[in-house]
Amino acid sequence: MSLLADRLITTLHSQLPHQPMSVGGAEGVVVVFPAAHSDVGDIQVHDNGDELIVMVGNFTHTHFNNHDRGLSNSERAERIADDVVAFLKDIFSDRIEFFGSHTGAGGWRKRKPKERGFLSKAVFGSKTYVWSGPVGNDG
């Protein structure tokens, strides 16, 4: 296991000790969080060498890295792990919403009182989801 993956697992166990997860899996998979709702899908975190990639259910993915050359590898791994865990906490608290076609074309944003815009709905569909499932009828 890489320094980055090891740091993430340590941070997850301390920051999200009660969140169901499985460690390891297919090549590059560090951890999998089983779906809270089947429409959303599992979350997988992949180790890509110098970054972690969070595969956000059926919708999209996002990259976490740090290019601060003034940090040691250990410090860089700690910052990346902290950023991933903060993102996951927002997801598991339904503070992040997802949208898309369930075919890999989609996105995410922090939840806002304002609905997604016309263009976003036209491109990705009107349904919006949070970790616990669909939000309303039209997002």
Ordered list of secondary-structure elements with their pairings:
Layout: H1 3-15, E1 22-23, E2 29-33, E3 43-47, E4 51-56, E5 60-65, H2 73-92, E6 96-100, E7 106-110, H3 118-124, E8 128-130, E9 133-135
Antiparallel strand pairs: 1-2, 2-3, 3-4, 4-5, 6-7, 8-9
What would you note in describing this structure?
With 139 residues, this protein is of the alpha+beta class. It folds into two domains: 3-92; 96-135, no CATH class. Helices cover 29% and strands 29% of the residues. It is built from three helices and nine strands. The protein has helices at 3-15, 73-92, 118-124; strands at residues 22-23, 29-33, 43-47, 51-56, 60-65, 96-100, 106-110, 128-130, 133-135. Strands 1-2-3-4-5 form a five-stranded antiparallel sheet. A two-stranded antiparallel sheet has the order 6-7. Helix 1 (3-15) packs across helix 2. The longest helix is centred in the middle third of the chain and has 20 residues, at 73-92. It starts with a helix and ends with a strand.
Compressed to H and E, one letter per element, the order equals: HEEEEEHEEHEE
Which overall shape is indicated by the principal axes computed on the Cα atoms? globular
What low-confidence regions span 5 or more consecutive residues with pLDDT below 50?
Answer: none
Order of neighbouring strands in the sheet with most strands: 1-2-3-4-5
- The secondary structure category is alpha+beta
